[in-house]
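Field: COMPLEX_INPUT
Field: COMPONENT_COUNT = two
Field: RESIDUE_TOTAL = 396
Field: MODE = joint
Values follow.
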Amino acid sequence: MGKGKVTRDMILGKAAALFNSRGYFGASMSDVMNATGLEKGGIYNHFPSKDQLALEAFDFAVQTSSAEVTRHLNMQEKAIDKLMAFIDAFTSVAADPPIPGGCPLLNSAVESDDGHPEMKLRVMKAMDVVLHSVENLVKKGIHEGDIQQTTDAQLIARTFIATLEGGIMLTRLYSDLAYMDSVTSSLRHQINAIRTSK
Amino acid sequence: MGKGKVTRDMILGKAAALFNSRGYFGASMSDVMNATGLEKGGIYNHFPSKDQLALEAFDFAVQTSSAEVTRHLNMQEKAIDKLMAFIDAFTSVAADPPIPGGCPLLNSAVESDDGHPEMKLRVMKAMDVVLHSVENLVKKGIHEGDIQQTTDAQLIARTFIATLEGGIMLTRLYSDLAYMDSVTSSLRHQINAIRTSK
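Field: COMPLEX_OUTPUT
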């Protein structure tokens, strides 16, 4: 990896942590300069604007968090067990965020929903990926005979993600994992309720 | 109501909408001046700092949103029906926010969780009120014989609020009420699952 790429990735990592913790408006280019130890020119050499840096930092944060989810999912074979692993992955993100500041999807969704159209579009696309992966796991679980045929996969996926993101919000607000534990215990119960009785 | 109080309330209403939509860092005092039509001195005459204005604007936003929830709850007599009305109230906040920008609890929780201790404390207190009111409704529902005795009221309350706030996040991200509809349909199902079979 060339020196330019190393510097670029270092800037992305530091910027992702700053924007995810303080938000796009809460973190300034001076903060990015302080965190990276680079002059403004050294940053603009790699990213033409704060906007562009924020968009790429968001992608970096999502990729890093997704890798944590994938790691949990890969430990399981069956779709219904992967659904349970999905809950573990979000609990792990709540307990020890791969990118400081919590879940980049939640943070950027809430910050961008009023009038940051380019970021909002990027969050929508990333959220689509997460929602569809849960929906597909539910469908696969039905196909594998572990989940009841009548289950509405889309409804389960939306509820699943809403509840997990809301759980992360509560756990971060109170700095107390007990909130995430309550929420995930509820979700596990909900998954058990759609199991076929074999 | 004196002229001073009228001006003060007008500033609070405009500031609440700005901060709730764009966030504390996303909205500047110049934005507040533009929205209110007042000079900087006219605003600082009522609020000593942007910080103080943001804290009081948050309280104003929470009171306004709570009034909408209370209005829905007052339409019902029994605790279990009030739980269902709580869902309607959040759906109404998602569809037509009393304060532009969505739910002030969600927005301020996500923005303040990293390093705005005074705001975070205020959000925690406001969230406590909401969580306890749901928990008390579940306990009252048990007492009234409509909810199963073994129900964990605290767990239900945390799941309820996490899911509703996550649903508002999704619905605002996609500008599509279908997400809130999925989530609330799931919650209604969950409440029916803890009903006593009378």
